[in-house]
Amino acid sequence: MQPRALWLKDPLAIQADGAERGIVVQDGRIVELVGAGRVPAGTDVTTFDAGRHVVLPGLINTHHHFYQTLTRALPAALDRELFDWLTALYPVWARITPEALELAVTVAMAELLVSGCTTTTDHHYVFPPGLEQAIDIEVAVARRLGIRAVLTRGSMNLSRRDGGLPPDSVVQDEDQILADSERLIARHHDAGVGAMVQIALAPCSPFSVTTSLMRATAALAERLSVRLHTHLGETEDENRYCVEVHGRRPLDYLAECGWLNDRVWLAHGIHFTPDEMARLARASMAISHCACSNQTLASGTCPVCDLEQAGVDVGLGVDGSASNDASNLMQEVRAAFLLQRGRYGVARVSHRDALRWATRGSAACIGRPELGEIAVGRMADLALFRLDELRFSGHGDPLAALVLCGAHRADRVMVQGRWVVEDGAVPGLDVGELMRRHAAAALALAG
Ligand SMILES: [Zn+2]
Prior knowledge:
The chain is of the alpha/beta class. The protein is 37% helix and 19% strand.
């Protein structure tokens, strides 16, 4: 049992003002920041000595495809740009079984947790026959591991036969997609503050979904009050496809589909013009920046500072494990920091910005103001890192050291006031056995 109130006492450093002596959590929330020279106001308080820990708000992952942990560094997909990469992988993904997916999701969520991630999204859009319960499987694993999740019901209904990119074997028809979306929301979506599981809707991309499904999905999201997500602005190929097939650029196409509104967060957002950035801001849309994936697939560099200057919130996503090929959100913070600093220079990008993107920025992407910040009333979602590894030896500023020296593993992680990572591991998870079964599933899939 967790104690009623817990004081995380005297942290080495903490990403919050006025919390020099730590914070108090109770009933899943942060209830007090303890300033210098003070002690907690309450008396019924248990203490956790955080003297060796740097405390961050739990990191929030705003874009991923868990199933892709089964196809990391697949030889057939190496050294390809997005469209060729997808074409190589679709037939492999069409063979994923429920058992393999459960292993993939467990691996991805465990990787995320030990990297300091407390809330993750996923974008699952591959539903070959037999894998209709994919999102239900994801919900079950999230509940088992204790990670907060916003799981998007993805979709593809435009196959090669109709001018799309994916093969027939991985697409579904519109009625089936919409009915299942409604089923999942009714069954799993919690609209309340502090929800552990939410469902959002996420047609895959303009080149794998019909205009009719884009529109119907936006209408369904509006009616059932859930968020909307898709890939957009990822490549120049996508721009060309949209102009050729729809006669307009991707954002104009999205507008035509009823998607320019504050329910929407987009993965990537690389290839927008200044005018398009202003339109995104006016519609209160947000962008998930996926620095590792964008570099691996040579898609381009997301103009994060320009987007923020225009008024667009930016969060971070590790993206699928076949284009990253990791699910480590702390490493993604460093990757985003390096990429954006290289683009904009020292005056515009600091390690503090990168941490802000992964926390408050990501919380804005998923419309969850109760997350992403260490402040009274926010959820008690925290990531605690130690700096006693070789890579940190000789460090100065502890918060800067996390990003600059390349922190990659949290020592402890708390979600909703409950420890879900202890001593750098997920309690009760047999990682050796998981890896053995997951590797066997990946091998079977590749064969
Ligand atoms: Zn993606």
